[in-house]
Design brief:
With 176 residues, the protein is mainly beta. Helices cover 14% and strands 61% of the residues. It has helices at residues 2-20, 24-29; strands spanning 32-41, 45-54, 57-68, 73-85, 94-110, 118-137, 140-151, 156-168.
Length: 176
């Protein structure tokens, strides 16, 4: 698990550096947008987030490890979300996307019962819905995602809600 987290961290840093090293002309010509931020959702997972959009398609990765009680309670949330842009490219303040999200929540913890026992669970969640993206500035956006999802390996089906804040590393002023 540590190798996966290290790998994702390296990918985030390399993409951020790559996006910032583009000169102004190549960014204007590109239809590629990189975003870094923080997201939390019932089907997208939660944590540090990277989003890459290419023309009308996008992908988002969320991940965060949580370690509590001196390492006796470890939770890792991972999420992968796919996007399809349905709004027109002319709006500079608003974007509308369809999304399909998958997340896994792994937990390894000790019980507090009379007999100490270690338990391990993995829950899979997924959902479909609409992503409302508001550009607060040229380099900052907020997302609110609303849809319907399945939880805990299809043990329940309920509405889904997600929220995110992203710093846009290379927003193309003509195509976003």
């Amino acid at each position: 698990m540590k190798k996966i987290i290290l790998f994702l961290s390296i990918v985030f840093v390399v993409n951020a550096i790559y996006a910032q090293n583009h000169d102004a002309d190549s960014v204007k010509k590109s239809k590629l947008r990189h975003e870094l931020g923080f997201a939390v959702g019932t089907t997208t997972g939660m944590g540090f987030s990277y989003r890459c959009l290419i023309k009308n398609f996008g992908i988002q990765i969320n991940c965060v490890p949580l370690v509590m009680r001196d390492g006796r309670d470890v939770t890792v949330s991972n999420g992968l979300t796919l996007f399809y842009k349905i709004s027109s490219a002319s709006s500079k303040t608003f974007e509308l996307n369809l999304y399909f999200a998958n997340s896994a929540i792994y937990r390894n913890y000790e019980t507090n019962y009379y007999y100490q026992e270690v338990r391990e669970t993995t829950k899979w969640n997924s959902g479909l819905g609409v992503d409302f993206k508001l550009f607060a500035s040229p380099n900052l956006s907020f997302d609110l995602m609303i849809g319907y999802g399945q939880y805990d390996n299809f043990n329940s089906m309920l509405p889904a809600a997600e929220a995110a804040m992203f710093f846009i590393l290379n927003r193309n002023k003509h195509h976003h």
